[in-house]
Amino acid sequence: MSNELLLSAAIFVVIGIVVVSIFILSKFVGPQNKEDKSKNTVYESGVSNPVGGTKLRFSIKFYLVAILFVLFDVEIIFMFPWAVNIRELGFLGLGEMFMFMGLLFAGLIYIYKKKALSWE
């Protein structure tokens, strides 16, 4: 084996031992507050005693709106580099961006026609 491979293996082993020992030491040396039961209770949105079970079903509309938000929000990721390099891309880049935005607009029209964003 080469010296570099042996050295890198030793470094990984030492890092692993250090990380494991830090976790073990923090368990024994760190503060332990087992008397305070409020640390283990649920606290959500200002409600300390929630009402209802954890297996509550949500409408599929919430997930659909979330996925659509992510889908249409990603377009900004593609539009920003285009806006920065618009002069270098020229008319070909402009045409490609209009085609991209047209496809997104067609998708939005499709979603609107399917009434995916209407709440009842």
Automatic annotation (TrEMBL):
Keyword entries, A-Z: Cell inner membrane, Cell membrane, Membrane, NAD, Quinone, Translocase, Transmembrane, Transmembrane helix, Transport, Ubiquinone
Coiled coil stretches, renumbered: none
Family designation: Belongs to the complex I subunit 3 family.
Subcellular location field: Cell inner membrane; Cell membrane; Membrane
Purpose of the protein: NDH-1 shuttles electrons from NADH, via FMN and iron-sulfur (Fe-S) centers, to quinones in the respiratory chain. The immediate electron acceptor for the enzyme in this species is believed to be ubiquinone. Couples the redox reaction to proton translocation (for every two electrons transferred, four hydrogen ions are translocated across the cytoplasmic membrane), and thus conserves the redox energy in a proton gradient.
Entries under InterPro entries matching the protein: NAD(P)H_OxRDtase_bac/plastid (IPR023043), NADH_UbQ/plastoQ_OxRdtase_su3 (IPR000440), NDAH_ubi_oxred_su3_sf (IPR038430)
Highest taxon of source: Bacteria
Annotated GO CC locations: NADH dehydrogenase complex; plasma membrane
Reactions that this protein is recorded to catalyse: a quinone + NADH + 5 H(+)(in) = a quinol + NAD(+) + 4 H(+)(out)
Membrane-traversing stretches: 6-29, 62-83, 89-112
N-terminal signal peptide: none
Keyword Thylakoid: no
Major subcellular location class: membrane
Name used for this protein in its record: NADH-quinone oxidoreductase subunit A
Record-listed E.C. numbers: 7.1.1.-
Enzyme class: translocase
Subunit structure: NDH-1 is composed of 14 different subunits. Subunits NuoA, H, J, K, L, M, N constitute the membrane sector of the complex.
Organism: Arcobacter nitrofigilis (strain ATCC 33309 / DSM 7299 / CCUG 15893 / LMG 7604 / NCTC 12251 / CI) (Campylobacter nitrofigilis)
Keyword Translocase: yes
GO molecular-function term, one example from the UniProt record: NADH dehydrogenase (ubiquinone) activity
Gene symbol of the encoding locus: nuoA
Organism phylogeny: Bacteria, Pseudomonadati, Campylobacterota, Epsilonproteobacteria, Campylobacterales
HAMAP family in alphabetical order: NDH1_NuoA (MF_01394)
Membrane association type: Multi-pass membrane protein
Pfam assignment, any one: Oxidored_q4
